[in-house]
Amino acid sequence: MRTNRTISPLPLPALFIAALVFFGLAAPAFAHHGWAWTDNEPFELNGTIEEIYIGNPHVTLTVRAEDGTWHVDLAPLARTLRAGFDEDAASVGDMVTCLGFRSSDPAERTMKAARVTVNGATYDVYPNRVPDA
Known about the structure:
The chain is of the alpha+beta class. The chain has two helices and six strands. It has a five-stranded mixed beta barrel. Strand 4 and strand 5 form a beta hairpin. About 7% of the residues have low confidence.
């Protein structure tokens, strides 16, 4: 014998709250990933490595340059490792050249590197994005 059961949908306020939570947590990830936040002009940064993070979601460097401290995003971990940049590639105190694109907000000292050169070795973490040098 079949019974007709009605499945009651989520009440509208609960659905609204769930959507807010999802988009609130996901928005920073969507805003950060990709290249939309960068300027279109190639940018070169030279300085000294102050900090190295090798992990997810992106490998990052903190670089001390003449005009201050910069945050440098490399590629996601797997891609950066495939390019050869690993725990042994650089150390705090090493001189580094990062080639890529800086934040489109000139007040931010942030860039996304396509190429990193340190200790005589060059790592193209985004080979298809390396500007003409």
